[in-house]
Design goal:
289 residues; mainly alpha; 13 helices
Length: 289
């Protein structure tokens, strides 16, 4: 578990770069979501064909179908959450989108998995840490409420993505799974971008460089490592750990963009870590220490 927790930390650092990089990239948000998946597939496909060709041939229809389903859910997560940032307050969007571990635990319960009180306590504490940092800024305007609904749905889609991925990863390697998953997400996002008339090219060299860095950090080191560790840590621990993205992004924005983090960033980080520790302790207890 110690290696998985280390890799989880690397993954969180990777996804924490996502928001600052997107904010600094001169491209539409949905186009950014598309290109990070397309570029990731471009990197993963040669590796999958060279090192996992036999596995890909032997992968059954069920595993391929589940991997594709996870890709659809990932595309939904991006496609629902990113537009919400322009419809409601950023704080409300982040707070609602990071309800992923709550929905993950609810979905696990519906599948017959009983989560202990320690898990629920850990998720609650960690989510309170997110609320401490983002605050509560609810508006009753129709546009803001629609944005809130999109962010909440994005959090639900993220939970489904995490659970389906954990199921596939029982029998399929990370590379083979993510190759199919990201390719499906890219295909879905391409259709959405074409329908919405999103500009997909004509960017500067600096923008393409930032898209490449985003792919390397947030997609390959971030999401791919999350898919790597979910097999060992389980979806509850992994999704709770993702809550660390919020204070992580705030601290990175402070160092890189010169945006001073709010005073609540540091205590929020400690509270989220405490909540994650409770969920991890529950997992260790179930494994016998």
């Amino acid at each position: 578990m110690s290696l998985d927790l280390t890799l989880l930390g690397v993954a969180i650092a990777g996804i924490s770069l996502s928001a600052p990089l997107i904010a600094a990239t001169a491209a539409p948000a949905l186009a950014v979501a598309l290109w990070r998946n397309v570029l990731a597939v471009g990197v993963l496909t040669p590796v999958a064909l060279l090192r996992h060709r036999a596995e890909l041939r032997a992968t059954g229809a069920r595993e391929v179908g589940l991997s594709a389903a996870a890709g659809v859910l990932l595309a939904l997560h991006f496609g629902l959450w990113l537009p919400s940032l322009h419809m409601t307050s950023v704080s409300s969007s982040i707070a609602l989108a990071t309800t992923t571990p709550i929905w993950t635990t609810v979905l696990l319960r519906l599948r017959g998995h009983r989560s202990s009180g320690l898990v629920w306590a850990g998720i609650t504490v960690a989510f309170l840490g997110v609320l401490l940092l983002t605050g509560v800024d609810l508006s009753l305007s129709p546009r803001a409420l629609a944005g809130d609904a999109l962010a909440l749905a994005g959090g639900m889609a993220g939970a489904g993505y995490m659970l389906v991925g954990s199921e596939v990863r029982r029998t399929v390697s990370t590379t083979a799974y993510t190759c199919v998953c990201y390719a499906t997400a890219a295909a879905v996002l391409l259709v959405v971008c074409l329908i919405a008339g999103v500009r997909l090219g004509g960017y500067s060299g600096e923008t393409w460089l930032k898209l490449a860095v985003l792919t390397l950090t947030a997609q390959l080191l971030g999401h791919s490592l999350l898919n790597r560790v979910v097999q060992g840590l389980g979806p509850a621990v992994t999704s709770t750990g993702i809550l660390l993205e919020t204070p992580g992004a705030a601290l990175i924005a402070a160092l890189w963009l010169g945006q001073h983090p709010p005073a609540a960033a540091y205590p929020a980080l400690g509270i989220i870590l405490l909540g994650l520790a409770l969920v991890v302790l529950d997992g260790r207890g179930r494994r016998g220490g």
